[in-house]
Specification:
The protein is mainly beta and 650 residues long. Helices cover 14% and strands 35% of the residues. A hairpin with a 2-residue loop joins strand 28 and strand 29. The protein is globular. The two termini are 40 Å apart.
């Protein structure tokens, strides 16, 4: 075995470069099956983040459906989702630049089937599903206005290009999941109202559907309410309506048949997740009506076969611990899978034979596994007698080790949302750090999903407190185990995770440095200056405004910049409609006036989350350079420097 070189933590040479990460940065999603063909969605960093629908035919050949410059992405709720629909070879998709629906063509440019809106990009469509006869696209519509918030509804869009869109359901603030049954005579959907987010509570509706003229009869409420979250309703082949509800305290599989709601599985596991984007699917139906449901057991991934009676008849282990976009195709299943040592890939599995074929990988990079740090799931105590969860990654590199006299620096990651979750799936950006000698802890603070409703609801009224507490508790726990240097703790996060980062660096004196990606410094920005979907999110996370005005002030770091005590790098997209660039600018102004070292990196053409290769690369390398300057180590390689204001204070 070759002798390892001794080098300080943080300075190890690594093959996992920022360039490599962007090369392997395909975003895979929205898997669909149509006969023997499989379709999926690719977000391509090398094409400035353009989203392309890809078709894989039965013979193994692949074809791009939407040619450049068409970008198959929608902006309903700003996060979008389910941007295309396919049936019998016909593909319809929403185009990012104008938000109109287009019909793809193999012989000419795609053709729009919806009208030009009165306001640019003012009529948007998401959650697209073709009806059984392909005459209509069922969708969620979002109509924008100059002087008030957008209107959302369930619509039927004619595929003949007439533009005569039929409104099927309206009057509630939000809608999702329009689905038609196999017989064609009914549809279902979800609705909810301010101040709820869909994971707080929503209602499931059913109505008779007349496919001839795209109209519905009187809607019937099936179940749900202000305190019951429902996700992923869909019709089984026998006409039962299957969905996932958290009424038991966990997102469990349930059905509605003959006017009766019946739990199919009641267990302390979440079968669903937060509906940030439209159209995700954690289960699908086999031809005999059985349900194929993703799951895990003892940290291993599996697919579970559940009958509509609720009886579980089989479970099959798979190589992936993270599974999404479950679709049945004949006797096979197609899904997106990942594991701690394998990047996301679209696979087709024949469960009866235990065989799996990779249809598309998010990365063509072949990595030596010895450079990968495999996460360990940890649970640790936190404030108010609470506990939180995380994935801990040790510094790992077969070529380097420290001199044994130092403890590694620790990078604490706070995920976005905040109603979301960290995953154990392979993350090259995390391996970028661990292979250079950083320990990393990816925190599932109170409020994260995947640990039941009570854990998720614990953040209500406590955002800015428990998330910060739990990130600090994770760092303290690892320091107490001798796994991290108490004087070299860094914290980073994006969006809501950026808010946690800024708060941790302002209200607490625990970290040496931090990085905030499109983070929130002033909660008041959400009062009248953000998009409709999240405009009342703070009502539950903080409190209703203006009644809780003082809390908004007290939990906004921008009001307490006198307490800032450590350097920060701020990274922001200039076209972000969710967290506006002004948030980055006001934080930079405060750091400038305080005389603290900081870097401000603003990226043209980026929205909420960076999608362009050059910007992903620049942000990672800039962050590493900044940490090196603050923590006094020299990163390996020839990194481009970033401007550090107040650098003399280092």
């Amino acid at each position: 075995m070759p002798t390892k070189q001794k080098s300080p933590y943080g300075s190890w040479e690594s093959p996992i470069s920022a360039d490599l990460i962007t090369q392997g940065g395909l975003r895979l999603g929205e898997v669909r099956v149509d006969g023997d063909d499989v379709y999926w969605h690719e977000g391509r960093p090398e094409e400035a983040g353009r989203y392309v629908i890809v078709k894989r035919s039965a013979d193994g050949s692949t074809t791009d459906i939407n040619p450049a410059p068409f970008n198959a992405r929608n902006a309903v709720h700003e996060y979008g989702g389910s941007a295309y629909a396919v049936r019998d070879g016909a593909v319809y998709f929403t185009n990012w630049d104008d938000q109109r629906i287009y019909k793809a063509s193999s012989t000419c440019e795609p053709v729009s089937i919806t009208n030009v809106p009165a306001i640019e990009r003012g009529l948007r469509f998401a959650d697209l599903k073709l009806t059984n006869d392909s005459k209509w696209i069922l969708a969620v519509s979002e109509t924008h206005h100059e002087d008030r918030e957008a209107d959302n509804s369930i619509v039927a869009v004619p595929t003949n290009g007439s533009g005569d869109v039929q409104v099927l359901a309206s009057g509630h603030d939000f809608y999702s999941s329009p689905r038609q049954n196999a017989a064609g005579d009914k549809i279902c959907w979800l609705s909810w109202d301010h101040p709820n987010m869909p994971w707080d509570g929503c209602e499931l509706w059913v109505a008779d559907f007349d496919a001839a003229n795209g109209s519905v009869g009187k809607a019937q409420k099936v179940t749900g309410g202000a305190d019951t979250s429902i996700v992923q309703p869909d019709w089984s082949p026998d006409g039962s309506l299957v969905f996932i509800t958290d009424e038991s305290g966990w997102w469990n599989l349930t059905k509605w048949a003959n006017g009766k709601v019946t739990p199919l599985i009641t267990e302390e596991k979440d079968h669903g997740g937060p509906a940030w984007a439209f159209g995700f699917c954690t289960y699908s139906f086999l031809e005999d009506g059985a349900i194929l449901l993703k799951g895990t057991k003892n940290g291993k991934g599996l697919l579970r076969m559940v009958m509509l009676s609720g009886r579980e008849v089989a479970e099959t282990a798979v190589a992936h611990t993270s599974i999404a976009e479950v679709n049945v195709i004949g006797d096979d299943v197609v899904y997106i899978g990942a594991s701690p040592t394998s990047a996301a890939e679209i696979v087709r599995a024949t469960l009866s034979k235990g065989s799996t074929t990779t249809l598309k990988s998010s990365s063509s990079i072949e990595l030596d596994y010895s450079y990968l740090s495999v996460p360990e799931a940890i649970t640790f105590p936190s404030t108010d007698n609470g506990e939180a969860h995380a994935f801990y990654y040790s510094p790992t590199n077969p070529d380097f080790e420290s001199d044994g006299l130092e403890t590694p620096p620790l990078l604490v990651i706070s995920h976005g949302g905040p109603t979301s979750a960290a995953s154990s799936a392979l993350s090259l950006p995390i391996q970028f750090w661990t292979s250079r000698g950083f320990a990393v802890v990816d925190v599932n603070y109170r409020g994260s999903t995947g640990h039941g409703k009570a854990f998720r609801d614990a953040l209500k009224g406590n955002w800015g407190v428990y998330d910060t507490d739990d990130c600090i508790a994770a760092a303290d726990y690892l320091v107490s185990k001798g796994l991290a240097d108490t004087k070299r703790l860094a914290i980073k996060g994006g969006s809501a995770g950026g808010y946690t980062t800024i708060n941790a660096l302002t209200f607490e004196d625990r970290f040496a440095v931090g990085a905030t990606y499109y983070g929130i410094a002033d909660l008041m920005v959400f009062i009248g200056d953000t998009h409709k979907y999240e405009s009342r999110y703070m009502d539950t996370l903080i409190g209703p405004y203006p009644e809780a005005k003082q809390l908004y002030h007290d939990r906004s770091a921008i009001n307490f910049t006198d307490q800032l005590s450590c350097p920060m790098i701020i990274l922001q997209g200039l076209e972000d409609k969710i967290v506006p660039p002004s948030q980055a600018e006001i934080m930079a102004k405060a750091l400038r006036e305080k005389g603290l070292p900081f870097s401000l990196m603003m990226f043209e053409g980026e929205q909420h989350g960076f999608r362009q290769s050059k910007n992903i690369k620049a942000s990672l390398e800039g962050e590493l350079y900044f940490y090196g300057r603050v923590m006094k180590f020299t990163p390996a390689g020839d990194l481009p420097g970033v401007e550090i204001e107040n650098e003399s204070a280092l």
